[in-house]
């Protein structure tokens, strides 16, 4: 697949991180000194990984829990492949978050499209039909839409297979999830997936931190329930934080989920600041950044910086 690049790599490297300062030693936490005060960071003794920069603020209540998927051959020093927050009563994920380490996420592992139940989600918190999720998708008119795409985890077979867990899937219309017009055009969601991979491997990027999902937390943001149970989100969102040795840049996207042809829509129609995305989703993204950094990178965004028209 080819996606247009509207900004040269050289220009990107000059522009991307000039607005915000940062350090090169805080990939997995926000710091603890007064200069790096972080009042809203995640803290957990049992799951220290939730202090990593890709994580939003976890709910931390009795109705949700975080699942951290790991693989032995991950390029990540902690072995993390990706993580999700699961809602016990809604029996759906709130988000998937992960890192895209420059030039290390890719490979030729291939695609292993066997959708299976997540072994780390207890059966009591899944839907209650045998072969649960395959039953709900069958004949529904919806595709099984990845949140972390299979193409984002090509460094190993085991990492790719984990992307096919139903906990990483939301129902999506075909026109939202796929190519359009006899494969000559691409939906905004499909194009945005490609952009994430493009941004991850720019020379100006050290690591790209990504949090994605569909809206499930309020009835007004739920499109419907398949067979009165499986939630279909009304909107899907993406939050990206790019980092290198000189600092950070962030951008958010919020896309209405429908079955119409939006192949000609520019991605700029869906772009916004992280602050704006937080207002729409109720999720506190990149909470593990020090407060001063978080405030700077989340309050604004630049389409030119991200090469978007």
Please outline what is shown here:
By secondary structure, the chain is of the alpha+beta class. It has helices at 9-15, 132-137, 157-162, 174-177, 188-200, 274-281, 291-299, and strands at residues 64-70, 80-87, 92-101, 143-146, 169-172, 179-180, 185-186, 207-214, 222-226, 230-233, 235-244, 247-256, 271-272.
List the helices and strands and how they pair.
Blueprint: H1 9-15, E1 64-70, E2 80-87, E3 92-101, H2 132-137, E4 143-146, H3 157-162, E5 169-172, H4 174-177, E6 179-180, E7 185-186, H5 188-200, E8 207-214, E9 222-226, E10 230-233, E11 235-244, E12 247-256, E13 271-272, H6 274-281, H7 291-299
Antiparallel strand pairs: 1-2, 2-3, 3-8, 4-5, 6-7, 8-11, 9-10, 11-12, 12-13
For this entry, give a set of tags.
two-stranded antiparallel ribbon; 309 residues; seven-stranded antiparallel β-sheet; 17% helix; disordered N terminus; alpha+beta
Poorly predicted residue ranges: 1-15, 18-25
Largest sheet: 7 strands, antiparallel
Radius of gyration: 18 Å
> Roughly how much helix do the residues carry, as a percent range?
10-25%
Count of helical stretches: 7
Helix-strand category: alpha+beta
List SSEs in N-to-C order.
Answer: HEEEHEHEHEEHEEEEEEHH
Count all strands and give the number. 13
Strand arrangement in the largest pleated sheet? 1-2-3-8-11-12-13
- The chain-level mean pLDDT equals 88
Shape: globular
- Percentage of β-strand residues: 15-25%
**Cα-to-Cα separation, first versus last residue:** 19 Å
């Amino acid at each position: 697949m080819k996606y247009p690049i509207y900004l040269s790599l050289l220009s990107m490297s000059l522009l991307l991180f000039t607005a915000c300062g940062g350090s090169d030693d805080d990939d997995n936490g926000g710091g603890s000194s007064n200069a790096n005060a972080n009042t809203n960071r995640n803290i957990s003794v049992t799951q220290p990984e939730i202090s990593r920069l890709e994580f939003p603020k976890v709910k931390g209540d009795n109705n949700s829990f975080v699942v951290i998927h790991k693989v032995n051959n991950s390029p990540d020093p902690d072995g993390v492949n990706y993580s999700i927050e699961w809602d016990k009563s809604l029996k759906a994920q709130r988000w998937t978050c992960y890192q895209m380490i420059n030039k290390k996420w890719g490979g030729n592992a291939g695609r292993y499209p066997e959708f299976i139940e997540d072994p780390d989600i207890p059966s009591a918190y899944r839907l209650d039909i045998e072969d649960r999720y395959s039953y709900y998708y069958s004949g529904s008119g919806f595709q099984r839409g990845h949140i972390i795409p299979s193409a984002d985890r090509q460094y190993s077979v085991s990492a790719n297979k984990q992307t096919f867990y139903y906990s990483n899937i939301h129902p999506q219309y075909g026109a939202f999830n796929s190519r359009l017009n006899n494969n000559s055009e691409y939906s905004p969601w499909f194009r945005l997936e490609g952009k994430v991979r493009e941004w991850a491997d720019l020379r100006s990027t050290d690591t790209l931190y990504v949090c994605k999902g569909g809206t499930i937390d309020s009835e007004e943001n739920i499109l419907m329930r398949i067979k009165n149970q499986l939630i279909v989100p009304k909107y899907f969102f993406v939050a990206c934080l790019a980092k290198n040795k000189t600092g950070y840049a962030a951008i958010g996207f919020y896309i209405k989920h429908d079955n119409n042809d939006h192949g000609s829509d520019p991605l700029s129609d869906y772009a916004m600041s992280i602050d704006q995305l937080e207002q729409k989703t109720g999720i506190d993204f990149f909470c593990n950044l020090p407060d001063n950094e978080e405030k700077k990178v989340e309050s604004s965004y630049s389409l030119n910086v991200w090469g978007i028209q």
